[in-house]
Automatic annotation (TrEMBL):
InterPro entries in UniProt: ArsR-like_HTH, HTH_HxlR, WH-like_DNA-bd_sf, WH_DNA-bd_sf
Domain of life assignment: Bacteria
Native source species: Streptomyces phaeofaciens
Statement: the UniProt record of this protein carries the keyword Nucleotidyltransferase: no
Record protein name field: Transcriptional regulator
Classification via PROSITE patterns: HTH_HXLR (PS51118)
Coiled-coil residue windows: none
Length: 112
């Protein structure tokens, strides 16, 4: 399921931030982007271990959405047992790069 445009402008978006938020909205999607950036070409179980607290259902759903949005690549290998790996697309890498200043802001922000 790809993200859907909202009304408000001819293309359904008011500004670029709302477009980006449709793709990365929620707690887990940005963490999936980070995990695939830090650990490229990961299997589902490996990703789940990198993201403590995420459920299988949520991870599977988010990976499908992110693949449909063009930021995650899913490669299925014709092997026994079957093997599937996930990685960032070029668009996913660009999105992750765009989030880098936000991560820096979060690290530098005082707690409390």
């Amino acid at each position: 399921m790809t993200t859907l445009n909202r009304p408000g402008a001819p293309d359904g978006h008011v500004c670029g931030i709302d477009t980006a938020m449709e793709v990365i909205g929620g707690k887990w999607k940005v963490l999936i982007l980070w995990a695939l950036h830090e650990h490229p070409h990961r299997r589902f179980g490996e990703l789940r271990r990198l993201l403590p607290g995420v459920t299988e259902k949520v991870l599977a759903s988010h990976l499908r959405e992110m693949e449909a949005d063009g930021v995650v690549r899913r490669v299925s290998y014709d092997e026994v047992p079957p093997r599937v790996e996930y990685s960032l697309t070029e668009d996913g890498t660009r999105l992750n790069d765009a989030l880098r200043p936000l991560a820096a802001w979060g690290r530098e922000r005082p707690v409390g």
